[in-house]
Design a protein that fits this description.
globular, alpha+beta, 4-stranded antiparallel β-sheet, 26% strand, single chain
Length: 118
Amino acid sequence: MTSPTTSLSVTTGTDQITLVNVFTVDIERQTELVEALDEATRSIFTKVPGFISANLHVSLDGTRVVNYAQWADKASYSAALQHPEVRKHVEHAAGIAQAYDPTLVQVWSVHNSDADVS
């Protein structure tokens, strides 16, 4: 698992989009799926024009993996889906998951804690 410390600038009212993809998976395959998504993100998506960032989340009950990925705009995301390497990855992840639900969204607002966390 990678744990980089990053800062992300999100601006509302832009063309930037976010893919929220919720995968349903057998408990015994959750790690396999998140590792496949992690590898594809590092080796493929980080090199695709328009890709900004991705965060992978695993449910505590072991039945879901959530991919939260930000893109410069919808056209960049759509173009990425035409790349052979991306298509191969999508097929691989789909083969591990029981189901998946990709949804494109735009950030409406961002809220941060007022608490001093230092």
